[in-house]
Write a structure and sequence with these properties.
The protein is an alpha+beta fold. It has one helix spanning 21-60, and strands spanning 67-70, 77-79, 87-94, 106-112, 115-125, 131-134, 141-144, 154-160, 172-176, 181-187. It has a five-stranded antiparallel β-sheet with strand order 2-1-3-5-4, covered by helices on one side. It has a five-stranded antiparallel β-sheet with strand order 7-6-8-10-9, with no helix packed on it. The longest helix has 40 residues, at 21-60.
Length: 192
């Protein structure tokens, strides 16, 4: 009898866990997901940067001395004729982290998605002999009748567009360094 030689079959090669079809598919899905997420993140970041750049260009298009008006709610600004009463004169165009020269300026923050990107420092552009009352927003003014009793209203007795403002003793001086302007204010006749 012959001794049948059994040929030893090589043991099947063990497939490494990372080479299985399911794991390769999972890695592919994760890789594609990460690439897509990165693309969307970069696209969104680019979009925000473009919007911020456009907003900064828009705010810097305002020049010191330009006349502007605020919307009724004090939330939007637009150019206007300097004869509009009341209106504002741009006193400074600043980065959002800088303050206006003094507290008399109306600080208008230019925002984009609730983040300030710039600031306009506004000077009231008022007419001597007229009376004004602040609106509910506190940033805007409206003309009012000087005979009406109103604790918040005031009358512009004189206006100076120079540094040599000499207001009468019975008035309050309200001044701005740029553009140089001073108002002599008194309570309205009805609030005496």
């Amino acid at each position: 009898m012959t001794n049948p030689q059994t040929t030893a079959q090589p043991a099947p090669a063990k497939t490494r866990w990372w080479r299985t079809k399911k794991v390769r598919l999972a890695f592919t899905i994760i890789g594609v997901s990460l690439i897509l997420l990165a693309k969307f993140s970069l696209a969104e970041k680019r979009e925000v940067q473009q919007a911020t750049t456009a907003a900064k260009q828009e705010i810097t298009s305002y020049l010191v001395g330009d006349c502007v008006a605020l919307g009724a709610d004090g939330q939007d600004v637009h150019r206007t004729d300097c004869g509009t009463d009341p209106s504002f004169t741009v006193g400074a165009v600043l980065d959002s982290d800088r303050s206006c020269a003094n507290a008399n300026y109306i600080s208008y923050d230019w925002t984009l998605d609730h983040h300030a990107v710039g600031r306009l420092c506004l000077v009231e552009n008022l007419t001597a002999g007229h009376c004004y009352h602040p609106t509910a927003s506190g940033k805007n003014l409206e003309q009012t009748d000087c005979a009406i009793s109103d604790d918040k209203a005031y009358k512009v007795v004189q206006r100076f567009d120079s540094a040599a403002a000499q207001c009468p003793a019975d008035t309050t001086t309200y001044s701005y360094p740029a553009p140089v302007r001073a108002y002599c204010l008194a309570p309205t006749a009805g609030s005496d």
